[in-house]
Amino acid sequence: MRIDIISVLPELMASPFQTSILKRAVDKGVAEVHFHQLRDFGLGKHRQVDDEPYGGGAGMVMMVEPIDKCISELKTQRTYDEVIYLTPDGQTLNQKIANTLSLKKNLIFLCGHYKGIDQRLRELHITKEISIGDYVLTGGELAACVLADAVIRLLPGVLNDEQSALTDSFQDDLLSPPIYTRPATYRGLSVPEILLSGNSKKIEDWLHEQAVKITAEKRPDMLQ
Ligand code: ADE
């Protein structure tokens, strides 16, 4: 998979891809992540990328031309499956969206800033708008990192068996059951007997029961 990320602050996103599992995915060539400095497509000697909104109001608007030029140039090089704009008014990211995107080949992530992008960009290029939650960040960069992380970890060969994505919370519409490791007793707190029983069928049933119970307690909305 290739992800092209367009931003005025690409340096903000470097470290997640230089560390741990995402770094391994990049090193293995399973994921290619390319950053594009939007200012390189800015107008005039100040490389302007934003301007005041027509009709007035507070805040600046990201101009249509620099973003159009950047995306259009990328589109001359390959076909993109989705051009995703990270914005608080997008569709809220969930595991299903991450699963779907993990099957794509080429993605563009556009990071918004200020008040947002000129509406015409939505008509010209944007195929999906994604929010990482109902709160407002200073820009789309951290949201782009969250989305990239959620997607890249699902690519074949990124996680090893121990980290398998198949047993994640949300993958079967349930939260994960409780987990334990050694010691069997710590400060008087013991690991549930069943997990020490060696009876894999019973353990599997118990884990499922626990997952349902925990989901009902913490996220009853998921069971509806
Ligand atoms: N940009 C600012 N806030 C955001 C959010 N919650 N999700 C995605 N992009 C954003």
Strand content: 15-25%
Radius of gyration: 22 Å
Low-confidence stretches: none
The rough form would be described as elongated
| CATH H-level superfamily title of the largest domain | SPOUT methyltransferase, trefoil knot domain
Q: Specify the biggest β-sheet.
A: 5 strands, parallel
The number of helical elements comes to 6
What's the total count of β strands?
Answer: 9
Portion of residues within helices = 25-40%
Bound molecules: adenine
What report would you give on this structure?
This protein folds into two domains: 2-152, Alpha/beta knot, CATH 3.40.1280; 172-223, Orthogonal Bundle (Trp Operon Repressor, Chain A). The two termini are 34 Å apart. It has a five-stranded parallel beta sheet. A two-stranded antiparallel sheet has the order 3-4. The longest helix is centred in the C-terminal third of the chain and has 19 residues, at 200-218. It has helices at 20-28, 64-77, 95-101, 120-124, 141-152, 200-218, and strands spanning 2-7, 32-37, 50-51, 61-62, 82-92, 106-111, 128-131, 185-186, 189-190. Helix content is 29%, strand content 18%. The chain binds adenine. The site of adenine has 13 residues, from strand 5. Adenine binds at residues 86-88, 112, 131-133, 135-137, 139-140, 143.
